[in-house]
């Protein structure tokens, strides 16, 4: 499973509003049954919605490691009370909670 966050969702999260997807209990599984198969990491657009970022699970875990390292360095610089922006913190929490990398 991969993480997909649209620009509209990031915008809503960054100003403190909750988007419906952010409140969903279960991740939406893509591609749907009967589709052509794996979707590579990159820009992805659903019909008329704004293009967003799609990350495959293994890429999401690499991103998580980079974000954790960045936050550690920022804590060293700004002090132990540093907290990442809400959109970064929510992306990290989503990866930790919902992204599963399967052995193929």
Structure characteristics:
mainly alpha; 45% helix; 11% strand; 104 residues; 4 helices
Structure write-up:
It contains four helices and three strands; from the N terminus they run E-H-H-E-E-H-H. With 104 residues, it is mostly helical. The chain has helices at residues 7-14, 20-23, 57-78, 86-98, and strands spanning 3-6, 42-44, 52-55. The protein has one domain (3-98).
Largest sheet: 3 strands, antiparallel
Strand content: 5-15%
Task: Give the strand tally.
Answer: 3
- Whole-angstrom Rg: 15 Å
Kindly report how far apart the N and C termini lie: 13 Å
Fraction of residues in helices? Answer: 40-55%
User: What is the averaged pLDDT score?
Assistant: 76
What's the SSE blueprint?
Layout: E1 3-6, H1 7-14, H2 20-23, E2 42-44, E3 52-55, H3 57-78, H4 86-98
Antiparallel strand pairs: 1-3, 2-3
Could you give a quick summary of the protein structure above?
The chain has 104 residues and is mainly alpha-helical.
